[in-house]
Write a structure and sequence with these properties.
Blueprint (H helix, E strand, L loop, with lengths): L1 H17 L15 H11 L4 E5 L7 H9 L3 E5 L26 H19 L5 E7 L2 H15 L5 E8 L9 H12 L5 E4 L2 H4 L4 H8 L4 E4 L4 H8 L5 E5 L2 H16 L12 E4 L18 H8 L5
Parallel strand pairs: 1-2, 3-4, 3-5, 5-6, 6-7
Antiparallel strand pairs: 7-8
Helix pairs in contact: 1-10, 2-3, 4-5, 6-8
């Protein structure tokens, strides 16, 4: 998925700037044990450290323990440690996204809260929401924050929920079929929350809303180009979790490099902006959300030269 490929490729670019050997192992969305296989593929390369992106520790606990036993350090990015779900503390380093979001849990709580606040404002405090809830523990944290914030609005209500796992998000998969049926049985819906771009675009969520004939506020996502272009075309109201996936990749490498050098990780400044038809929309079609901050120059100025 682009949501995962962009930060991974950006991390590779950043690693090359630092002279760090870097490779990518694809978890294939967890299908057929793909996530565990990816961690073991990474471990077979005998690295100093492994970055786990978008996969919580509880999903890949066994190979992470194998990495720890082999003396390989592990850092999670957009991922919960096993200790966050009642297990052991298995990540060696904390990603530290920003001053207000030092942990992945804090980061995803912010994502859920901002999305709910936008929907509340866009419906004048009368949101009747169809929610979409993932099974991953981190997705649950995002959802809990979203639900809590909607609950603070006296005129708002979550009227139905569609549960899914990542493999369900394949085109014409079980999620989109359930989502279409949910819209059909809830004509009073005024808003839909799509947590991730894949639901909006490749899984067919925005198109399903259009086909329903309902006039809805649709919000969520992280700001990849396909979802941003749907805002431009009027198919989606807002991408409420827009963040620079490239910055995320560079930030991960900066913190891993610090940690391996015996320094603490630091707040990286990665956060969220809302993109709608009048705010933060890229000038040209085909572009995802891009931060106006020149983070690459800032990192390169701070890093030692390898020339």
């Amino acid at each position: 998925m682009p949501d995962c490929a962009v930060p991974a490729n950006a991390a590779k670019e950043a690693a090359e700037k630092l002279g760090i050997r870097f490779s990518i192992a694809d978890g294939k969305q967890g299908v057929g044990g793909g996530n565990e296989a990816a961690v073991r593929t990474a471990l077979a390369a005998q690295p100093t450290a492994i970055i786990i992106h978008g996969i919580s520790c509880s999903e890949v606990e066994a190979p992470i323990r194998e990495a720890r036993e082999a003396g390989v350090h592990v850092m999670g990015v957009e991922a919960l440690d096993c200790s966050d779900t009642g297990g052991d503390d298995l990540f060696d380093f904390e990603m530290n996204y920003a001053d207000t979001a030092p942990t992945s849990a804090d980061y995803f709580r912010t994502w859920g809260r901002l999305s709910a606040e936008y929907i509340i404002a866009a419906t004048d405090g009368k949101a009747q929401v169809v929610n979409n809830v993932g099974a991953d523990p981190l997705q649950q944290i995002l959802n809990d924050s979203f639900v809590e914030t909607i609950g603070e609005c006296s005129g708002c209500e979550i009227i139905d929920t569609v549960d899914y796992t990542t493999p369900d998000l394949a085109p014409e998969g079980s999620w989109i079929q359930q989502f279409r049926a949910t819209l059909a049985k809830n004509p009073s819906t005024t808003a839909v929350f799509f947590p991730f771009d894949v639901q909006i675009a490749s899984a067919g969520g925005a198109q399903a809303v259009r086909e329903s004939g309902l006039n809805l506020v649709t919000a969520g996502g992280s700001g990849q180009s396909t979802a941003i272009d749907m805002v431009r075309d009027g198919l989606v109201t807002a991408i409420t979790g827009s963040h620079s996936a490239e910055w995320l990749g560079w930030a991960a490498i900066d913190n891993v490099n610090r940690a391996l050098s015996g320094q603490p990780t630091v707040p990286q400044g990665v956060g969220f902006r809302v993109v709608d038809s009048t705010h933060n929309l890229p000038e040209q079609p085909g572009n995802g959300y891009t931060t106006p901050i020149d983070f690459k120059s800032a990192y390169e100025a701070a890093w030692p030269s390898n020339n």
